[in-house]
Design goal:
Bound molecules: guanosine-5'-diphosphate, magnesium ion
Mean pLDDT: 90
Shape: elongated
Number of strands: 7
Distance between the termini: 32 Å
CATH class of the largest domain: Alpha Beta
CATH topology of the largest domain: Rossmann fold
Structural class: alpha/beta
Helix content: 25-40%
Length: 271
């Protein structure tokens, strides 16, 4: 689903984005509301000074209180930002209004690039704005063919999204990005990132695991306990940790553990 980022990939992605940015009047930067800080690209600001609208995606999966804090903070920084639940088509009208407001004097519809790191919802956004049926959603980013413009009400979109590389400034950021499937989980052992998630939940969302799996008495063996309760068993009744981890991961990604934000506003160090 996602691509592995080697330095060569980043260089190529950066070159492509630079070319794409020359063709547009501005961009829609898609950011996952569960990782509003970790899923932003640190170099984007240096690449262009063209107008940018931040589109916060997947707010249906994120903690609404955290989303509000991040929104208020970014607005106080002068950023234009819209929150969306793209699966429900929520926020599209607000995006159109914000775009119209950003380019009041343009004689034609503004041309925009939809950009973001993998899996944040770029294709879903393009489909929503252009009212196309789910073409290419979730697909592995492929080779870009000749550029075309897609017409959408009030704007023109470049046909393929700009794929940004994530920042790997520390292992925690990388783990959060793996949890939301923006980088390949194979970078880590799945048990390791799920273990990290469970510690995070215990500290910041203490009801999440008990609500889904029941109260866990033995904290040290929490994953084993969950595996046993979910029937993730090998021959002889031994718990299959990989299966248990992948079941917790799936529950997190589909919102079954509740609405959770991994980048907590209060703990952010970039402010
Ligand atoms: N729950 C939820 N899922 C979303 C939302 N937007 C996109 N998705 C899902 O996230 C996955 C990745 O979306 P996609 O548009 O392919 O991301 P891209 O890699 O940035 O183009 C797909 O399974 C989408 O259905 C959203 O707002 N809420
Ligand atoms: Mg895509």
């Amino acid at each position: 689903m996602t691509i592995q980022w080697y330095p060569g990939h980043m260089t190529r992605a950066k070159r492509m984005i630079k070319e794409e940015l020359k063709l547009v009047d501005g961009l829609l930067e898609v950011v996952d509301a569960r990782v509003p800080e970790s899923s932003r690209n640190p170099d984007l600001r240096d690449l262009t000074s063209k107008p940018r609208l931040i589109v916060l995606s997947k707010t249906d999966l994120a903690d609404p209180l955290q989303t509000r804090e991040w929104m208020e903070y970014w607005k106080s920084q002068g950023e234009a930002i819209v929150e969306t639940d793209l699966l429900q088509g929520q926020g599209l009208r607000e995006i159109r209004a914000a775009v119209a407001q950003t380019f009041p004097n343009l004689k034609r519809h503004p041309r925009l690039l939809v950009a973001g790191i993998p899996n944040v919802g770029k294709s879903t956004l393009i489909n929503g704005l252009t009212k196309r049926r789910a073409a290419g959603v979730g697909a592995r980013p492929g080779v870009t063919k000749g550029k075309q413009w897609l017409s959408a009400p009030g704007m023109q979109l470049l046909d393929s999204p700009g794929i940004l590389w994530p920042k790997f400034e520390d292992q925690e950021v990388a783990k959060r990005l793996a949890l939301v499937a923006s980088i390949r989980d194979e970078i880590f052992d799945q048990v390791e990132i799920v273990w990290w998630l469970m510690q995070f939940l215990k500290e910041h969302y203490p009801d999440a695991l008990p609500t889904r799996y029941g109260v866990i008495d033995e904290e040290d063996n929490a994953l084993e306990e969950i595996g046993r309760r979910r029937g993730c068993l090998l021959r002889g009744g031994i718990v299959d940790f990989n299966q248990a981890a992948s079941s917790v991961l799936k529950d997190f990604r589909t919102g079954k553990l509740g609405r959770i934000t991994l980048d907590l506003f209060s703990r952010s160090e970039s402010r």
